[in-house]
């Protein structure tokens, strides 16, 4: 090796690993966080940490599916060719219980959702009855009804003792509805991860500052904050570390109070790429180069036991590698079983002409059209071309080894706006 | 009409309108909310209210794509069969500018992202150079480079004056990255809707309370709160109105301080279904019956100018009609152009045997399998069967008129977990 190379050559593992190996090695180090008891509105999007068993029948009581009259079904039979007339002995609104039973020859008005009174075995809807006036004590039954007619039995939806929700399920609006129905005001869930986001580099200034020569704004921290939130975690921007060991050490002292540290920049081969050094000083580096484009320099390891994912400084690399590695980490920490975006076959309308030796994740917009998924790539795919992210909802995957995709040819695409599988 | 029917018959419009007409009539009354200036992290998911024009070139200056040496490309030519040796006059880190120019026969070390020094027209990556030691003042150039080599020109991503984001775009993590890059710390967005959620009915108790005879827990308000949040709006539960005109009036006095009122229950034909009465007293009712299942009794109108969507009391009806009508309302208020979930062709593996005269939205789980979308329905489709919502990510649409779908036949399905189109 030449001396001149040594002075800015990488320290540590030179090996460039595959995307799959990187993902395996990352996820092997990540475990779901601890379980906490949390109230209903806050558990949205979190993972249920125990099976939920119905403690009651749902519906809790047999109730009417219609507005109508509760009766004994045998009383609905015509008698000697005449429609039966039943005496109305009361009225039951939803939320109230009958004060007496329905006896032979009698009936009670009943509203949808109201408990079926004792003695009654069916409900006839009001449209199939006739009364002479609103205060008439008699109602004519115009159609024969079978036992159980318009009655929703207790326990028809959920039976007491039945497992209704399963540990590991994601709690969405509908699961919240079921938990509320069963009276679970709080439930045990895997805690929401708290993620520290750290920019690095003397060139990075805050977004509120005017540009100065040689400087660029801290777009990555804001992008990653939003992406972390979209992945279901709390995001905490810790600002930008300078390119000194001292500045990085100070920032990492703060960062290790979180569940995951995301950095951007500082993981390449330059003299000032110190994130790897600190990782080796205070923790352990697992790997730092992946055979992919954009985003070869992705470092993974831990500092004081806290996993650290070092993303590249180029904004597109940072955005894409977060989707590929950061999001699955957050999902695994959150207890999700489905970690990865689905890959589907697409027709790449405009093709991918550019050869890349590394696996190439090409930003693309995929639509479903005439029974096919059609992908259109989003222009200049340079890792500093943020506009290539605009309108992209997928990454077309071009295999390693300088492969191109002819216009109209098939390829795999990862659907970024579909749920994980 | 018989007198007995009148006493619990509907007041107002008897007409049952189609889902499409209902949606048209609802959306015709909804306008995007006002525009506010909001800071970057908070605009996630909101709609941009003006075009964003780059005020600077991005990158703001020509910079190096590699760690290496900045030079005049003509100096990289071998001379008399010998590799050129250039004198190293300095080093430029990212974030700093060169203090002098690169002159003929000289070079400067340069890091990725650092500004290209004056005089240099190319960068050679360090791997193609050789130095005798780390402090040697000379470097051997081992490959000829062309002008522009490894240089990212200023403005290659975005040009000053270029429109980069368009009014009406949804701001996701990547758009936030672009706004940060351009120094937009705040941007004008359509305000996030604030939605009041009101349960109704004497039978409804809070989720913290033990069940009493005839009572059910307030699952709808919690379900809707989560669904409203998932649709990108703020949700405010206002509790449960009793089945009295006074109680409803009181709740509506509070509710009209929000942008949209969602009620559940109280819009059917019963004596105690008073939401429609109050709507007619204090505002206007547009319609209240839709030819669909679940969820025929959906009322729409306004109270004191605030749109009110009255959803049915049955939890499944409430959940499904929110997806069909409530979510598009929130999206239109939020300024989105894409309001509706995509409908795709699916193979209904287990079919739909149950005949319904109304349009039937059948809860189903859809997966992409062997080049087809396969739907499997989720069991008992009764509007009180909440467990039919579990695992459903789609609604299979069965046309009006008592149509069935044979096992393995095709149908349209609305994909609830895909983005709107």
UniProtKB/TrEMBL annotation, chains A, B:
Residues in MoaB/Mog domain copies: 196-332
EC number: 2.10.1.1
GO molecular function: metal ion binding; molybdopterin molybdotransferase activity
Keywords noted in UniProt: Magnesium, Metal-binding, Molybdenum, Molybdenum cofactor biosynthesis, Transferase
Keyword RNA-binding: no
Keyword Cell membrane: no
Pfam family, one: MoeA_N
Gene3D superfamilies: MoaB/Mog-like domain, MoeA, C-terminal, domain IV, Molybdopterin biosynthesis moea protein, domain 2, Molybdopterin biosynthesis moea protein, domain 3
Coiled coil: none
Pathway membership: Cofactor biosynthesis; molybdopterin biosynthesis
Family (UniProt): Belongs to the MoeA family.
Function per UniProt: Catalyzes the insertion of molybdate into adenylated molybdopterin with the concomitant release of AMP.
Protein name from the UniProt record: Molybdopterin molybdenumtransferase
Organism lineage: Bacteria, Bacillati, Chloroflexota, Ktedonobacteria, Ktedonobacterales
């Amino acid at each position: 090796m030449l001396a001149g190379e040594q002075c800015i050559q990488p320290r540590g593992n030179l090996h460039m690993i595959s995307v799959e190996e990187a993902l395996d090695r990352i996820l092997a180090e990540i475990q779901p966080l601890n379980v906490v008891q949390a109230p209903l509105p806050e558990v949205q999007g979190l993972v249920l940490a125990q099976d939920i068993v119905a403690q009651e029948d749902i519906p809790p009581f047999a109730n009417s599916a219609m507005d109508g009259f509760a009766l004994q079904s045998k009383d609905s039979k015509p008698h000697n060719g005449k429609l039966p007339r039943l005496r109305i002995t009361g009225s039951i609104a939803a939320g109230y219980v009958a004060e007496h039973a329905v006896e032979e020859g009698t009936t009670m008005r009943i509203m949808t959702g109201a408990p079926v009174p004792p003695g009654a075995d069916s409900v006839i809807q009001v449209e199939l009855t006739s009364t002479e006036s609103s205060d008439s004590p008699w109602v004519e039954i115009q159609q024969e009804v079978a036992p159980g007619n318009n009655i929703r039995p207790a326990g028809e939806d959920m039976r007491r003792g039945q497992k209704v929700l399963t540990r590991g399920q994601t709690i969405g609006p509908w699961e919240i509805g079921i938990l509320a129905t069963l009276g679970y005001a709080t439930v045990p869930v895997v805690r929401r991860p708290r993620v520290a986001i750290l920019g690095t580099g003397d060139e990075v200034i805050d977004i509120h500052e005017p540009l100065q020569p040689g400087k660029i704004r801290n777009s990555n921290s804001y992008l990653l904050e939003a992406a972390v939130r979209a992945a279901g975690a709390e995001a905490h921007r810790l600002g930008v570390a300078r390119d000194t060991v001292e500045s990085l050490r100070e920032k990492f002292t703060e960062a290790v109070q979180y569940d995951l540290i995301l950095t951007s920049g500082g993981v390449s081969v330059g003299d000032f790429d110190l994130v790897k050094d600190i990782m080796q000083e205070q923790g352990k580096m697992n790997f730092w180069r992946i055979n992919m484009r954009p985003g070869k320099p992705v470092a993974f390891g831990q500092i004081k036991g806290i996993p650290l994912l070092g993303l590249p400084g180029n904004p597109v690399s940072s955005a894409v590698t977060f989707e590929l590695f950061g999001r699955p980490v957050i999902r695994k920490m959150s207890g999700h079983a489905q970690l990865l975006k689905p890959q589907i076959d697409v027709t790449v309308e405009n093709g991918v002409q550019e050869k890349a030796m590394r696996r190439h994740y090409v930003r693309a917009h995929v639509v479903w059209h005439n029974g096919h998924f059609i992908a259109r790539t989003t222009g200049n795919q340079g890792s500093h071309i943020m506009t290539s992210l605009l309108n992209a909802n997928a990454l077309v995957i071009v295999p390693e080894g300088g492969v191109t995709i002819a216009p109209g040819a098939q390829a795999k695409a990862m659907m970024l706006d579909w749920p994980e599988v």
